[in-house]
Amino acid sequence: MSKPAAQMNRTPLIQRSNKDFFIGLSRAFGGALVFGLPLLMTMEMWSMGSTAEEGRLALLFLMSIPLLVGLSHYAGFEETFCMLDDVVDTFVALAVGFVTSGGILWMLGVIGPQTAADDLIAKIAIQAVPGSIGALLAASQFGTKEEEEEEKQRFTRYDGELFLMAVGAIFFAFNLAPTDEMLAIAQQMGLAQVLGLLVLSLAVMHAFVYAVKFSGTPDTPESTPQWSLFLRFTIPGYAIALLMSLYILWTFGRMDGASLQTGLATTVVLAFPAAIGAAAARLVI
């Protein structure tokens, strides 16, 4: 084949690749807006950028990068073929999160020319994390049925299932941890209620995925006993929800000055929606 002919054959492929990228990028902005909007319009999150310790926010941002790399591998807004592709898409998603968060916060009057530079960066950066998650989840939420089936096949591995639960848990925890209600609820609960909520979280988490047969329920052999699924997925998933809840509460300073009992109770309270988020993530992504 002559060189001009080969170049002509490559041109449609390049054009298609560029088109797919821009479609994926458009979905990413849509995902960032859908997933980030509740927090962008939450007053506690506006102040969190100013009141939370800078070191903790920086650590949260740095720790979100490997999370986003993994999410890009499993459910990114475009197909990737190597680790470098996932890293590139991660930083594209972060850029989308920053642009979306900054634009909406400015539109709402939360930030402006009068905002100090460090406060401006903190307010946008903390909102960019859930926005970036939404950007990378855009393909699974807004993609075609064929693309959704491809994404589901990636999560058939056990580690993929656990990772997916971690994403769902941290996203739900991120949405509720900044609010004062988490601590207020924990302070008015007794020990029996805390233990009851823990048991309820496990039961609801397991029922969401295996009992009520929602659309997207993972395929499992009929011979698999429920106790096996409970031990292999529900217990580890709830442990992940607890850890994610504890970390987010610490990041936002909600554990500062709290007694051990209050801290544990607050973690269990936040782990309730986080566990539901972990279970729901296995169904919808």
From TrEMBL:
The chain crosses the membrane at residues 21-43, 55-75, 87-108, 160-178, 190-212, 233-252, 264-284. Pfam families: DUF2391. Keywords: Membrane, Transmembrane, Transmembrane helix. The keyword Transmembrane helix applies. The keyword Membrane applies. This is Putative integral membrane protein (TIGR02587 family). The lineage of its organism: Bacteria, Pseudomonadati, Verrucomicrobiota, Verrucomicrobiia, Verrucomicrobiales.
